[in-house]
Specification:
Layout: H1 4-17, H2 21-32, E1 42-47, H3 51-65, E2 71-78, E3 88-93, H4 100-113, E4 121-126, H5 130-133, H6 143-155, H7 160-168, H8 177-184, E5 188-194, H9 217-226, H10 236-246, E6 264-270, H11 272-285, E7 289-294, H12 301-319, E8 325-330, H13 347-358, E9 365-371, E10 383-386, H14 388-396, H15 401-406, H16 410-416, E11 420-421, E12 432-438
Parallel strand pairs: 1-2, 1-4, 2-3, 4-5, 5-6, 7-8
Antiparallel strand pairs: 8-12, 9-10, 9-12, 10-11
Helix pairs in contact: 1-11, 2-3, 7-9, 9-10, 12-13, 13-16
Length: 439
């Protein structure tokens, strides 16, 4: 059996490998276009942390199998997540708070889609991060208004699902509006989606630019009310727009009934659960019995850490040490920062520090938590890890994990121990990954 640190790192690597766009995009293009290459022009647009890698994979496939197809387009990704392309323009922009580069790129995407003809094919590449990158506000809402609204939702700890419902109803592209524009031109739409959301529903991945939306203006307004976000935190233009939608004065997001006469398909090509299964297969080969808790675990990161610490204790008592266990989970947690605390780190590192703090009595426990896009929150690490040896090192250095946790400085704690997971941008994104080894 390999040492625990190596197993943790290799399990994370296995989770990433099965979501690599360079592998999965060609596989799905071959299935989607089994009847031959696209007829007419092929426009490629998209957004997300994995979208540039998806675009380069598509170009490589097209050069080999669609030599006579004209391909062009625009794809948006996060700064530092670019990938080389020849015909598809890659625009890097800010995430999670949108900036002008993202808005300019979204405008370019929308303009190109509105130039499609009836014989053309629109391929849309979407992954996690697409919601903020494809920021094209509805008329009357400025870029600064969108930025302020996003920051307010982030600050109050709103779950990503709620953030996206609000953003859909402020966007000219999200919530199926991109597909609506293409359908009006008579074009065929094929969307390839890498999911970083619980449930893997196309409407939720990147806020569903090509999917029928289940939410409505009432939901968006209720979310602002729930988090007590009024005119003091949300721009007047945003509140006015949502009120107009509530009154039926402007169109809703795309619904199933709107798709009846259109050729629109959404293909989910990678999911968090597939990545958890790949990690489980790896740890099984190392002699561990994997227990997959699922990819839908959400909530305050610190509290999820407490819950999984309790679970670890129960499993040890029940198992009696008869066989090493690996507890694997996914799902996007949140971190709510109290007023006056800036914090350093992200939800994965905070979960891990909470788990570390709550499991000091369990001698043979090791764990890793990391975001599959390579960036966990405010710093440049994907997450962090610890082993029993690292716990001893923290004691020897006099580090008090509870103090770091109270200050929301999980980055600082694990940096002190050289226990950060640092991958750089992975060019994919299938949500957070957590693994606990119980020997």
């Amino acid at each position: 059996m390999s040492n625990q640190k190596t197993i943790l790192q290799n399990a994370f690597a296995a989770a990433l490998a099965v979501a690599d766009p360079q592998q999965i995009v060609p596989e799905y293009l071959e299935k989607i276009f089994a009847d031959g290459s696209p007829q007419g022009k092929c426009l490629v647009v998209g957004a997300g942390k994995a979208s540039a890698s998806m675009a380069s994979a598509l170009e490589r496939f097209a050069k080999q199998y669609w030599p006579n197809t004209e391909i062009n387009g625009v794809v948006l990704t996060r700064y530092g997540h670019g990938s080389p392309t020849e015909y598809i323009q890659i625009i890097e922009a800010s995430h999670p708070v949108p900036d002008q580069a993202g808005m300019d790129g979204a405008k370019a995407v929308f303009q190109l889609v509105n130039q499609l003809n009836a014989d053309d094919v629109l391929i849309v590449l979407v992954s996690g991060g697409g919601s903020s990158l494809l920021t094209l506000p509805q008329p009357g809402i400025s870029m600064e208004d969108m930025r302020t609204t996003t920051q307010a939702l982030l600050r109050c700890g709103a779950p990503i699902e709620e953030m996206n419902i609000v953003r859909k109803h402020l966007s000219a592209i999200l919530g199926g509006n991109l597909a609506r524009a293409a359908m009006q031109r008579g074009a065929r739409v094929e969307a390839l989606l890498i999911s970083d959301v619980t449930g893997d529903q196309p409407a939720d991945i990147g806020s569903g630019p090509c999917a029928a939306d289940y939410s409505c203006y009432r939901d968006a307004v209720d979310i602002l009310v729930k988090h007590q976000l009024d005119e003091s935190a949300i721009p007047a233009s945003v509140i006015e727009h949502l009120q107009k939608g509530l009154a039926g004065l402007i169109p809703e997001t795309l619904k199933e009934s709107d798709l009846q006469n259109g050729h629109v398909r959404n293909h989910v090509i990678a999911t968090a659960y597939k990545s958890l299964e790949a990690a489980a297969d790896y740890v099984r080969s190392e002699g561990y019995e994997p227990i997959i808790l699922g990819d839908t675990i959400t909530g305050e990161a610190k509290e999820v850490g407490v819950d999984q610490a309790k679970l670890a204790k129960e499993l040890i008592e029940k198992n009696g040490g008869s066989k090493p266990l690996a507890v694997i989970s996914g799902g996007e947690c949140t971190v709510t920062l109290p007023a006056g605390i800036k914090g350093r780190g992200g939800r994965c590192s905070e979960f891990l520090l909470s788990l570390f703090t709550e499991t000091g009595h369990i001698s043979q426990l090791a764990a890793l938590a990391a975001d599959t896009d390579g960036i966990d929150g405010s710093e440049k690490n994907a997450g962090a890890w610890f082993t029993p040896e690292l716990r001893e090192a923290s004691k020897a250095r006099g580090l008090k994990p509870s103090q770091f946790l109270e200050a929301h400085d999980c980055y600082g704690f694990f940096a002190e121990l050289s226990a950060l997971v640092e991958t750089g941008p992975t060019l994919t994104n299938v949500n957070d990954f957590r693994i606990i080894l119980l020997n």
